[in-house]
Amino acid sequence: MHRTMAEPSWRELYKPKLVTVLREGYGLKDLRADLVAGLTVAIVALPLSMAIAIASGVTPDRGLYTAIVGGFLVSMLGGSRFQIGGPAGAFIVLVAATVERLGLGGMALAVALSGLILMAVGALRLGTFIKYIPYPVTVGFTAGIAVIIGASQMRDLLGLTLPGKEPGPLVPKLLALEQALPTLNPAALCTAVATILMIALLRRWRPNWPVLLIAVTVASVAVALAGIKVETIGTRFGALPRGLPPPQLPPLSLDLVVAVFPDAVAFALLGAIESLLSAVVADGMTGRRHRANAELVAQGVANIASALCGGICVTGTIARTATNVRAGARGPVSGMAHAVFLALFMAVAAPLASYIPLSALAAVLAVVAWNMAEKHAFALLLRASWGDAAVLLSTFLLTILRDLTLGITVGFATGSLLFIHRMAGTLRVEGSAPLVAPDVADRSGPLPDQPTVRDDDILVFRLSGAFFFGAAAGVSALFDRVAARPRAYVLDLTAVPLLDSTAATVIDGLTAKARRQGAVVAIALADPEARHLLSSHGLKAPRVYFGRTQEQALARVRRVLGRAPGGGSQVPDDGEA
């Protein structure tokens, strides 16, 4: 009933994907593709990292430190081939609240502690539980993130001028953008539209070219030569920083650790969820498989290093990871290259990067968001069933209207309840027992079908499917409705792949009923683990007799009835038949 599989070794679980890619054979062509992808992602990450940092209540250079240090380590040590690490919009509210309450030192300590927590989670091999996230949750979460990314780019896409700080939540953001529509900059809008059209046409006619890089470069050159008045990286953020600060330990005291620990836990949980979901999205786009526990350990190391270098939270970023994949990345070298290019921008190319129009970068991210949305999968799940649609919509709506953590939590809970409901419906009970008429009209419980044996003194029930807490109530109600008073009951559980304590309690109830009637109970069960579970609930001889097959259980019952008619409990157990 259960297959034993060899446990993967520590080396297999935590070996970075970089090692795997290099051992598979990594040539000059692969390096060229990764460098182009890394440069493309770096161009996207440059203003985005600074913008996230500013929105988080810290200076823009801290966002760059996070992308450089954290992004390099995530790619070098991580368990995903295509993951891009860096600051993420999902952390803006959490980081801003921590900075406001505890200052930059408290925020740095919280980030470092979250790294330790992530490493512990990975070391305990808890990262594999991400595989239990239902597909509708992944699609809903990804679509929600795509909507958030698209909305966040509308300001630069349209060249709007807001009177104050742009709101973070979606609805207030859209209201603020609507009020700012009179400030629309036609030049910025034209630049964005031209960039989007260029990307679309190049992808159709030259799909192997670095489309995103070409589009941004052409837009930058055109704006600079024509003197078009649009906002650029330089006009908004000023001169870029020239290098990384020396590593420095955050302030440490017992009181501060206690104060920041809840924030560190929140950072770690959100980082784990978003990083692994980002890796799952990359897997879905590429057909590859990530190592969840190795990814979490890498995220932990990256967060600790980011805190030491003045950065903020590091996580896997869905938008930049998707950009990396679509830019033609071949492996983790692209993520490391993206960090190196960001460092080069800081050191020598700050004047050139300053000419990049924000509207062109907004257009790139708008295209990324459109491609991330998985529109076909979204529509398919809406039509698939009411359960899948409920999981999808609850995840999607809560992600865009509240926050991604709540969206994932509610979506996962809804999906789990749906799974339990569906699994409960897979259990089938076959038997020949006459039943007491039900006292309600509801016939949702499992009902008997074809009789498996024809013996007036023995009632046989054959169960097939998962017998667990979700199906236990229906089976218990069925047993309670048995009107006959046989001399023996036989439960055939050989087709039950799953048996839990609730099911054992139901069987114990049938055994108690049989004892009151002076009847014998036998169970056909070949799984030693399931038999041990039943024994731990007191279901062993002389209360219950076991056989490996239904025929053996029936033979045991008939032998017991022949020795002690009506009182099988007087016969000692002599082992399995």
Automatic annotation (TrEMBL):
<feature type="transmembrane region" description="Helical">
    <location>
        <begin position="63"/>
        <end position="84"/>
    </location>
</feature>
<keyword id="KW-1133">Transmembrane helix</keyword>
<dbReference type="InterPro" id="IPR001902">
    <property type="entry name" value="SLC26A/SulP_fam"/>
</dbReference>
<keyword id="KW-0812">Transmembrane</keyword>
<protein>
    <submittedName>
        <fullName>SulP family sulfate permease</fullName>
    </submittedName>
</protein>
<dbReference type="Pfam" id="PF01740">
    <property type="entry name" value="STAS"/>
</dbReference>
<feature type="transmembrane region" description="Helical">
    <location>
        <begin position="133"/>
        <end position="152"/>
    </location>
</feature>
<feature type="transmembrane region" description="Helical">
    <location>
        <begin position="340"/>
        <end position="370"/>
    </location>
</feature>
<feature type="transmembrane region" description="Helical">
    <location>
        <begin position="104"/>
        <end position="126"/>
    </location>
</feature>
<feature type="transmembrane region" description="Helical">
    <location>
        <begin position="459"/>
        <end position="479"/>
    </location>
</feature>
<dbReference type="GO" id="GO:0016020">
    <property type="term" value="C:membrane"/>
</dbReference>
<dbReference type="InterPro" id="IPR036513">
    <property type="entry name" value="STAS_dom_sf"/>
</dbReference>
<dbReference type="Pfam" id="PF00916">
    <property type="entry name" value="Sulfate_transp"/>
</dbReference>
<feature type="transmembrane region" description="Helical">
    <location>
        <begin position="184"/>
        <end position="202"/>
    </location>
</feature>
<keyword id="KW-0472">Membrane</keyword>
<feature type="transmembrane region" description="Helical">
    <location>
        <begin position="35"/>
        <end position="56"/>
    </location>
</feature>
<feature type="domain" description="STAS">
    <location>
        <begin position="456"/>
        <end position="557"/>
    </location>
</feature>
<feature type="transmembrane region" description="Helical">
    <location>
        <begin position="256"/>
        <end position="282"/>
    </location>
</feature>
<dbReference type="GO" id="GO:0055085">
    <property type="term" value="P:transmembrane transport"/>
</dbReference>
<dbReference type="InterPro" id="IPR002645">
    <property type="entry name" value="STAS_dom"/>
</dbReference>
<feature type="transmembrane region" description="Helical">
    <location>
        <begin position="209"/>
        <end position="228"/>
    </location>
</feature>
<dbReference type="InterPro" id="IPR011547">
    <property type="entry name" value="SLC26A/SulP_dom"/>
</dbReference>
